[in-house]
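Hello again,

I reread your note about wanting to compare the complex against the isolated chains. To keep things tidy I'm splitting this into two emails, and this first one only covers the full assembly. Below are the input lines as submitted, including protein chains and any nucleic acid or small-molecule components. They are followed by the predicted structure of everything together. The single-chain runs will come separately.
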Amino acid sequence: MSAHQAPDEKRDEKSEHGRRAMVRTLLGGGAAAALTGAARPAAAAPTPRPRARHQESQDPFAADTFKANGRVREYWIQADSFEHNTVPTGYDAMMGRHISGQTTFQAVGFRAYTPGWHHPLDADLGPDGVGPNQGIPGPVLRAEVGDLIRVHFRNNDDHYRWPHSMHPHGVLYNRDNDGAWVADDPDRPGAAVPFGQTYTYTWACPPSSVGTWPYHDHSMPQSIPAPTGAGGNSVRKEYGLDEAQRLSSADPVMEIGAELGLLGVLAVTDEQTPKVDREFVLFLHDVYKADIPSLGQNLNLFNGAAFLGNTPTFTAKTGDRVRWRIASLGQDFHVFHLHGHRWPKAPGFPGFLDSQLIGPSTTLTIEYLEDNPGDWLYHCHVVHHMMGGMVGRYQVT
Ligand SMILES: [Cu+2]
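Full-complex prediction:
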């Protein structure tokens, strides 16, 4: 029995037993069995059928190979700068307090466009969609095993006018498609696309690319000057001498573009990936006053927003097959916790979780059959981060 369950949610042992079965894994070949076998206890969950790629070779050291299927997934992505308010209501509905201080900053985010970067794509929150496409996080880039992903990238950061890039995790690429800037190899193609210019990245999806991955700006380090006068002094007071020296010398920060919002999720599927009714994309990230001096405080963000009433509200219906694709970037380690729900630790293994550790650039893919109507919270279970903004609602009808 979870400590978070409300009194009226208490169940006897028998119904609790049945509930555990409902949240069985949907991963791998066990999906169909999991969805129809709700009456069986979790311990009797069928072992998922091994994925096809493991059946092709008995050698665990066999090289993963990319076999092109001839399909190219083309994306037209633009880095756009915009003013972004992390707390649009100005209110923290969990603590019941108004948020004073500056919560708005000049953000930069990836947006998906029609070919030629003419018009932003409409929001699509469906399980195969690009998501809200509002900039933070960027669009969901989707592909299947055997696909080539071709990203036509344009840097439209007309605020900072810094170079930017796109660096993917999980897919296959060579040096010219890494999008990662290093000082001793500054001319690497695609690593620092200047403002107003474009670059095309090509990434391949071998079988080992199945899953949820982050992508983000990995271009040249930059710094935002600390405000002078009273604001700058308060930054110095709060962060101490080391930080004050860092700010006064304006040392560049690596991956500051990602901190400003240039991040997103890449999802690669294969024929064994279960079909779902709902797919939620959740990015855990942080903005730090030491890096963005105009902010009134550090903020712990879900999809660019902080505090209950501002963070996304996800919805599902009983009977829905649900997947969360969760990713994280920043300086902090977080613990994703979902009230009223549990999910399998790993496909084919006994044991369930309702909280899971996630750190910078790691991901979680959570799947379950929805069986528990209610108004639930999801949040980071590091209390400091929960109070810093990482809490949201999940409503099941
Ligand atoms: Cu956290």
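For quick reference: The chain has one domain: 72-221+254-396.

B.
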